[in-house]
Amino acid sequence: MCNEEKSSDSLLADIGLDIQRVLWSLFECWKNEGTEADHVQVFELSVEFACGEVYQKVVHSQEGKTETFYYKNIYHPVDATIWIVDSEEGAVMMKTEKK
Q: 5-95, superfamily in CATH?
């Protein structure tokens, strides 16, 4: 794991730590693989139901690329948009407010 600073903004209080860990893990995996990435990573979270099960759907997008992931063992799935903004000083996770 990098020695880079990571933080989360206060709007993430209603986003479970399990979801935050998943997003940080995806972010770190791409960085460690050397995957070319934008400075802003966008994660669209939504709750999906299939065969009586509840899933956290995570759609990751950056310029020219979209990936979708499904997670079953999330304690409290949510509908939200999360950004991870990367800089030389570190990275910060933020939740956007829908109006």
A: enterococcus faecalis protein (3.10.450.150)
Please give the torsion angle defined by the CA atoms of residues 66, 72, 74 and 78, in that order, rounded to the nearest 10 degrees: 50
Specify whether the CB–CB gap between 31 and 90 falls below 8 A.
Answer: no
**pTM (2 d.p.):** 0.81
- b/e burial code for range 29-43 (CB count within 10 A of at least 16 → b): ebeeeeeebeeebbb
pLDDT 10s digits, 50-88: 999 999 999 998 777 889 999 999 999 999 999 999 888
Rounded alpha-carbon distances, angstroms, from residue 55 to 16, 32, 48 = 14, 27, 5
Task: Give the torsion sign (CA, 87, 92, 93, 99).
Answer: negative
Of 29, 13, 1, 30, the closest CA to residue 82 belongs to: 13
pLDDT at 7: 52
Residue 2 is predicted with a pLDDT of 47
